[in-house]
Amino acid sequence: MPSSTDEVIYQETIRWKGVPIRLDAVRAENKAFIISGRFIKTAALKNEWQQDVEKPEEIIREITASPAKIDLLRFWQRIPESEAKYGYYKEWRDVAAIAIRSFDHWWEKQISGKTRNMVRKSDKMGVKIEEVQLSDEFVHGIVAIFNQSPVRRGKRFWHYGRSFESVKEGLAADLGEAIFIGAYLENELIGFIKLLLADRYAMIVLILDKTTHRDKAAMNGMIAKAVQICAERNIPFLTYTTWRRGDHGAFQQRSGFEKIRVPEYFVPLTLKGAMALRLGLHKGLRGAIPEGMMVWLLALRNKWYSLRYPQKVA
Q1: DSSP class of residue 20?
Q2: Global pTM value
Q3: Which residue range is the domain that position 254 belongs to?
Q4: Is 295 helix (H, G, I), strand (E, B) or coil?
Q5: Pair (71, 172) in one structural domain
Q6: Does some domain include residue 129?
Q7: What is the number of structural domains in the chain?
Q8: Is residue 34 located within the same domain as residue 102?
Q9: Which string of b and e fits 211-250 if b means at least 16 CB within 10 Å?
Q10: Cα(160)–Cα(152) distance, rounded to whole angstroms?
Q11: Contacts of 299 (CB under 8 A, 6+ apart)
Q12: How far, in whole angstroms, is CA 210 from its chain's centroid?
């Protein structure tokens, strides 16, 4: 691996839809920045949920001096730093997070009576929720959950049909920073969470349940367990990464997550990057679609999948 961006562009491995892929990267301030885009090349931290851009001027200098010819630098402030620290062009990213004081505070102050009843319901129906170790038995249970349907929440579910080996490899990729929670009905895994630990929060990177047991409220019980783990380990925030739309967002809100807006910066490094920013192309085609149209397109996609897989949509 090069010691400086002045030497060569190198490659970093990331996981995309469960599959490891290699992408061009540069280093600045001893951090890896992944290069994405074909026409407009954008550099962003590989570990943007675990690291901060603390010296943007120095990073801009190093990246500009690299042979990569990068057009835009993108970075954002992680919670709890919601006040903009820099004067670059910014937009706002909505992060879903629970500020953890104690489990009792979450239980009494941050969720509704209905959500408390759902957690109690899960326990009364015999669901046992516990922190578990990654094992072949646990992975087999997750594979069964993945293979319920090729469609979830109105879109193709990219975990569907993955092999046991692929699923195990993906779950073990960051094992040193991971916590697994399993929801069991007798000996059957009916839900699970994968938490990834960062320096200031725990992230929910995977959370799924078995649709055939959705009446058991395992999702509510697993969130309660995640809050308990964070409180016991003095982790100040539990984040569900970004705030979601529709029913998914409603579930986040009922579970005590709040929408925290943090600044996301886009810094043009070339004339092409400045033009892309001016034309609103800095987030690609998807980012240029108005919110109202995006909601309509998502509903249309959901309808199409419901017609294509009438008995298999989860």
Answers
A1: E
A2: 0.85
A3: 97-259
A4: helix
A5: no
A6: yes
A7: 2
A8: no
A9: eebeebbbbbbbbbbbbbbbbeeebbbbbbeebbeeeebe
A10: 10
A11: 154
A12: 20
Contacts of 33 (CB under 8 A, 6+ apart): 25, 26, 27, 43, 44, 45, 46, 59, 63, 73
> What is the rounded distance in angstroms from the CA atom of residue 18 to the CA atom of residue 25?
20
Instruction: Say whether both 111 and 235 belong to one domain.
Output: yes
Same domain as 245, residue 274: no
Residue 307 has φ and ψ, to the nearest 5°, of -80, -35
The answer to whether position 31 is within a domain reads yes
- Judgement on whether residues 24 and 136 belong to the same structural domain of the protein: no
| Spatial distance between the Cα atoms of 45 and 31, rounded to a whole number of angstroms | 7
Cβ–Cβ < 8 Å for 79, 237: yes
Q: Does residue 242 sit in the same domain as residue 278?
A: no
> Of 259, 275, 290, at which residue does a domain stop?
259
CATH number at residue 129: 3.40.630.30
Residue 5 lies in a domain: no
Together in a domain, 133 and 252: yes
Using CA atoms, how far apart are residues 209 and 189, in angstroms rounded to an integer? Answer: 9
Residuewise pLDDT in 10s, the chain (314 residues): 444 434 458 888 887 776 788 999 999 999 999 999 988 999 999 999 999 999 999 999 999 998 889 999 999 999 999 999 999 999 999 999 999 999 999 999 999 999 999 999 999 999 999 999 999 999 999 999 999 988 876 677 888 999 999 999 999 988 999 999 999 999 999 999 999 999 999 999 999 999 999 999 999 999 999 999 999 999 999 999 999 888 888 999 999 999 999 999 999 999 999 999 999 888 766 666 666 666 666 666 666 656 666 655 45
Encoded amino acid at 25, one letter: A
Query: Closest Cα partner for 241 from 288, 174, 302, 195?
Result: 195
Please give the sequence-ordered ranges of beta strands (E in DSSP) within 115-248, or none if there are none: 127-132, 151-152, 155-156, 178-185, 188-197, 202-209, 237-242
Same domain? For 25 and 109 the reply is no
Domain-located, residue 102: yes
Q: How far apart are the first and last CA of the chain?
A: 43
